[in-house]
Amino acid sequence: MLLSCVVNLKVHQESLVPPSMGQLLHAFFLDRVRRLAEERAEDLHRAEEIKPFTVSPLWGRVTYQDNRWRLYPGETYSFRVTSIDKELSLWLVEEWAPSLKEEVVLAGASFQVAGITVKPEEHAWAGMTAFEEIYNRYIDCQVDKKVGIYFHSPTTFRVRGNNYPLPDPRKVFLNLLNKWNMYSPVHLGDC
């Protein structure tokens, strides 16, 4: 099962946070997993080439000031956790998301959890589906010869243990194919 869980946060007071909130949210995610299931956290933290999850940077209205982001009270900020592993996806919905307390502190800023959703009708970037559903929906349809991919946050690809910051088409599609084949019951073949 593929999962995209969006967490909405409201900041209580104007705050300055580091622009590297993506790293802080990643650490927050793994710390919360560790508190709930230490063995699962160790599995996720291992240095495998293909991880079954992602954590986005913080989204929302910010201004850049003194090498930091200024967050505004009353504004809604969001981040997204995704999973491509069925067991992890179910655990995130049943255990991780409900464990988020009403208040979360990140980089000294206090946030109120304003909602968590996996429903696309509640947030365009939320959802749950199965590999088979995607495969069956698109296997017999006409596919354009051109495909557009848009990166909405900084994205790197692991190449021989290093982060590669350029969206080289071969690396992008090989990475997607490898992830699909590693976690999906529907194998798409090798390249």
Structure explained in plain terms:
With 191 residues, the protein is of the alpha+beta class. It is built from five helices and eleven strands, in the order ββααββββαβββαββα. The strands form three sheets. Strands 1, 3, 6, 7, 8 and 9 form a six-stranded antiparallel sheet that branches. It is globular and about 50 Å long. The two termini are 23 Å apart. The model has no long low-confidence stretch (mean pLDDT 89).
Give me the strand/helix succession: EEHHEEEEHEEEHEEH
Count of DSSP strands: 11
Q: Any idea what the shape is? A: globular
Q: Please, how many helices?
A: 5
* Regions with little confidence, pLDDT below 50 for 5+ residues: none
Give helix % range: 25-40%
Radius of gyration: 18 Å
Instruction: Tell me the quaternary state.
Output: single chain
Structural class: alpha+beta
The portion of residues forming beta strands comes to 25-35%
Overall mean confidence score, pLDDT: 89
User: How many angstroms does the end-to-end distance come to?
Assistant: 23 Å
Major pleated sheet:
6 strands, antiparallel
